[in-house]
Amino acid sequence: MEQDPQRKVVVDALRRYAGGLPHGIGGPRIVPGLSYIPVSGKLMDLDDLEMLVDASLDLWLTAGRYSVELEKAIALRMGTRFAKLVNSGSSANLLAFTALTSQALGEKRIQPGDEVITVAAGFPTTVAPIVQNRAVPVFVDVDLHTHNIQVGQLERALSPKTKAVMIAHTLGNPFDLAAVSEFCKKHDLYLIEDCCDALGATFGGKSVGTFGVFGTLSFYPAHHITMGEGGAVFCSDPLKNKILESFRDWGRDCWCPPGKDNTCKKRFNWQLGELPEGYDHKYIYSHLGYNLKITDMQAAVGLSQIRKVDGFIAKRRKNHNLLTHMAKQRGLEEFFELPKATPGSDPSWFGFLLTVKDGAPLSRRELQKYLEDHKVGTRLLFAGNLIRQPAFQGQEFRVVGDLKNTDKTMNDSFWIGVWPGLDETHLTYMMDMIEAGVKAQKARG
Questions:
Q1: pLDDT by residue (tens digit) across 39-64?
Q2: Residues paired with 218 in a beta bridge
Q3: Which residues are the active-site residues?
């Protein structure tokens, strides 16, 4: 952080301000039984605040120096050549998929009517870009331990129209990347990995998001690091990186960074499309794009956060392990399917998922209500079964099999938090309440 005299005055005042806050920058302490225990949350400190204020003092309100540094840091962390920042994880998914529709990819581009294999048990914006680009999602079921795609169904889902596979690593647990990658290689398909819930997860010692053509991340406050709103797409292919940048930045053909001109040294010497020769390259558009950029203030916070991400991930893993141990110790396997890591993976857990077993004398809905009434936050596995959602009524899609486990997830699964703001006292109380909720339902018969 720059420390010229004027900025130092501001930073010193900021430190005094933060030191005088009654609960510190992180807010009030979460007290089990008295405070609501959220399923997710952000951990922020004085370093994050200082970086935010430093970026604000530049009054450079769009992407700038911090954005450049954060893109480099993300690419380094993920093990890729490039990363592009966007304004949300959902935008990251939209950008990644839309990039594969570019005419620059020739016959390999995804076109309207092409099919994309995915799952219905997940977050809607993993699938929405497929529909928004007029391709057809093909839904495959999941298993009940990892809640990831049943890889044995992939060949059944294949058709002459299949062009890609786009799926998420569910709650930070990688899907079987060996099987999915081999399937995509065998049939010459694109693989897009939604890693929004899985920053830091690995498969076979290799980072998720690096097996496919693109990986995506979210930096919403619920995720492994935060900058409020934000996301990223990362890859190692120079052409596809250029396409990403074009679609993100209005669809322009020019690659000059904000505030820069004539990077190509031939700004007035281009002739593209049916434009007149010499038309200003800054206003030549090779794609029908968007403006998905972030502000430099967001990037500054993200850069501070990513320096702490290894500690955040370690705490998530520790908390998930503790909850697993407690659940087994209390005999909860009699009532619930407990989450299991995909063989060969090291998850970066987003939540602790429980699924009521068939025949167990429990109502998921009643148990959730009991937990919420006792100040334990719960969440469903997002959309449950997307094809049952109002948004998908009337949409074109194809289903492989009966999606039995997806419906089971919709009806009987929920999750509780493992985020690094929780410690063993929170986890113990959460498990106490789950156990009490189960006993209450059993007592009523």
A1: 999 999 999 999 999 999 999 999 99
A2: 231
A3: 223
What is the residue type of 262?
Answer: N
Rounded-to-integer distance, Cα 144 and Cα 146, Å = 6
435, two tokens: 């156990």
Using DSSP bridges, classify how beta strands 413-417 and 351-356 pair: parallel, antiparallel or unpaired.
Answer: antiparallel
37-67: string of b/e by CB count within 10 Å (b at 16+)? bbbbbbbbebbbbbbbbbbeeeebeebbebb
Q: Give the global pTM.
A: 0.96
Beta partners for 331? none
Distance, in Å, from the CA atom of 11 to the CA atom of 245, rounded to the nearest integer, reads: 34
Q: How far apart are CA 386 and CA 376, in angstroms?
A: 26
Task: List all residues 6 or more positions away from 277 whose beta carbon is below 8 Å from its beta carbon.
Answer: 269, 270, 271
Q: What's the longest Cα–Cα distance across the chain?
A: 81
Confidence of residue 4 (pLDDT cuts 50, 70, 90): confident
Which of these, 153, 90, 89, lies nearest to 118 by C-alpha position? 153
Amino acid at 370: Y
Residue 175 and residue 169 in contact, taking contact as beta carbons nearer than 8 Å: yes
Tell whether the model's pLDDT for residue 2 goes beyond 60: no
Chain centre distance of CA 302:
15
Are 209 and 234 in contact by the 8 Å Cβ rule? The answer is: yes
- Residue pointed to by tokens 């990037």: 299
Give the DSSP letter string of 390-402: GGGTT---EE-TT
